[in-house]
Amino acid sequence: MISSSDNSHSRDAHTHNSDSCCSSTPRIPKREILTKSDLERFQTSETYEKYMGFITKLNEAVVDKPLDYSADKSDNITFLMELLDKLKAWVDEIPPADVGLSRFGNPSFRKWHDKLSEKHLELLTIVPEDYKTEVGTYLLASFGDYKRIDYGTGHEASFMCFLLCLQHLGLIKEEDYPALVLSVFWQYIMVMRKLTHAYWLEPAGSHGVWGLDDYHFLPFLFGSGQLSTHKYLRPKSIHDPEILEEFGEKYMYLSSIKHINSIKSATLRWHSPMLDDISGVKKWEKVNSGMFKMYKAEVLNKLPIMQHFLFGSIIQFKGSADGTEVEMEHVHAFGQEHPLCCSIRIPSSIAAVQGELRKPIPFD
């Protein structure tokens, strides 16, 4: 169980450290990347390098380590696992609403999100009191959009910012990195799978615009890192059902392919052409290096994603706004016009396989 008293020693131990490592007063993170010019400047900033440096070190920490690798778990890693377990359990407590055959987001997700909004600060008992709101903002932004009932790589990036904040505050050490990926991050993915299955979260943007699948990117990046030195498995192994069955519980990449296959009809060639193309690469090491290039180009270089990135005193950047909140029109996936992927809601392929009356639709 997570309680304030159980973790008071962790909070007190890190209070002094957090005061010394932060360069300014804690503040609520807000949007700063509002224009293409802002995005271009962000890509040359220290914060950009800090974020990608964190991703790089996490990737290096899991090379040649399967998901069942017995990584040491510090008290704070254990705390994060318990926190995610609690969020996962809430799904069982808040069943989806009966909306018939709808394949769009289930409104009960908003009840789950309301509970997270109400409870997230009191759950963060390891975080110094002054920083709870700032750090908690990233946690709250990690599990999908309340209004749109959707989820995508921007929310996934918010979770990485949450972890980066904990690292910056001294709550996560470099020796924690293997467990941070193999246990904490992977448990986050399990929570998201449960949320998408229960509430049919819609993809945040059109699949195929710049994503590997409907929702995630980093399991493929870290997953290819896990496999980068494997002696026997090759990228083409994703097409072998027996290999997916045998090794799907050990490697993020293979688990993700297996999961996609379970909710999609037809073949990877049709519904996930990018993943199909990547399977033709001979070595996982090259796949992994390519994933870094793709993540920078297709996630961190996309204004429709990065316009929602949040900045505070820990993850810093100053955009073109004058310091006041600016209400900007949403930048859509193909530009400022309203293409089909934005003017028409994108149905959840997971909802298509829920229940006996729902069937997979080819080419989802």
UniProtKB/TrEMBL annotation:
EC primary class: isomerase
Region (Disordered): 1-27
CDD domains: PTPA
Keyword Transport on entry: no
Protein's GO biological process: mitotic spindle organization
Domain of life: Eukaryota
Gene Ontology MF, one: protein tyrosine phosphatase activator activity
Entry EC number(s): 5.2.1.8
Keyword Cytoplasm: yes
Reaction catalysed by this enzyme: [protein]-peptidylproline (omega=180) = [protein]-peptidylproline (omega=0)
Pfam families: PTPA (PF03095)
Alphabetical keyword list: Cytoplasm, Isomerase, Rotamase
InterPro entries membership: Phstyr_phstse_ac, PTPA_C_lid, PTPA_sf
Membrane-spanning ranges: none
GO CC term (a single one): protein phosphatase type 2A complex
PANTHER family xrefs: SERINE/THREONINE-PROTEIN PHOSPHATASE 2A REGULATORY SUBUNIT B, SERINE_THREONINE-PROTEIN PHOSPHATASE 2A ACTIVATOR 2
Similarity remark: Belongs to the PTPA-type PPIase family.
Name used for this protein in its record: Serine/threonine-protein phosphatase 2A activator
Organism per entry: Boothiomyces macroporosus
Lineage: Eukaryota, Fungi, Fungi incertae sedis, Chytridiomycota, Chytridiomycota incertae sedis
Gene expressing this chain: RRD2
